[in-house]
Amino acid sequence: MADLDGGMxxxxxxxxxxxxxxxxxxxxxxxxxxxxxxxxxxxxLVVKFDEAPVAYTLSTLAxxxxxxxxxxxxxxxxxxRLVAWITVGIEAVGVVTVGALSLAxxxxxxESTVWSGFGQGYGYVPLVLPFVGLWWLxxxxxxxxEERTA
Length: 150
Known about the structure:
Elements: H1 2-13, H2 22-48, H3 53-75, H4 78-104, H5 125-141, H6 145-149
């Protein structure tokens, strides 16, 4: 019986998953943003691409990053965790770079993108989200020696 309890306790602590607890909220927010960005970029690519190809390509890149990050955070296995680090890192660099460039020159991209003005059109969620995502990845990557050997 002690083994069963010990096994149950070990099972509860091993492998902190990125899609559990607060991670579920994070995955949900990523999913909503992915859906919004994918819808926006699809429309822009089909209907308005000739007007501002750079802006609409950046919006498509953002949508792809959000979709991949959503799945990577939801799955949370070691391989998908690496994918999450990469995509969320790209997202952080992208929103800061595009946000700064769009503030320096309002017409830098011809039209606004998901990341223009640091995500102003999306309530600044694109600015805050990657840093929350990076924090969550870091927080869930910490484990005790017992968790690493189990």
